[in-house]
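Hello forum,

I keep getting stuck at the same step: I have a sequence, I want structure tokens, and every attempt I make locally crashes halfway through. Rather than fight my setup again tonight, could one of you with a working pipeline run this one for me? It's a single chain of 151 residues.
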Amino acid sequence: MVTNILTALLVLGSGTVAGVMFAVAVSTLPALLSMPPDQYVDAHRALGRNWDPTMPIIVLTSTIIATVLAFLVSAPVPRTMFAVSAALLLGVAGVSHLCNVPINRAVKALDSRDIPADWPDPRPLWRRWHLLRTGFAVTALTVVGLTVAFT
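Reply #2:
Ran it on my machine without issues. Output:
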């Protein structure tokens, strides 16, 4: 019973993470890339306002649940798949914390009315890191889905 509840929560959490990351990659990010720097800074600030702490909580809670499930289930294949999904979600958290969040902080610290002419635009780098964590998130959801489907 506990494993069923935790599995349902993991499906919900990993699905939310993958869905948000995918939506940002295919919709929000192209819009941000098309903006001039001053509009981008203002939009980035407005869009990111509610992500923290919401997304870190969902990502880390899902990681913990996947880890717990890896220890709770006895069959080797689901145990391994839950461990893999935990590692992938940990990858999402690591890339976010170490790569995207520092860029976010730097962008939020800018005055959109006074962006230097030689401003090193962080959007291409932010995009690369975001696509990496999106790949981790979508793969984690896929692994969780396959685990549920075949156990």
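Residues 21 and 134 are 5 Å apart (CA to CA). If your local run keeps crashing, start a new thread with the error log.
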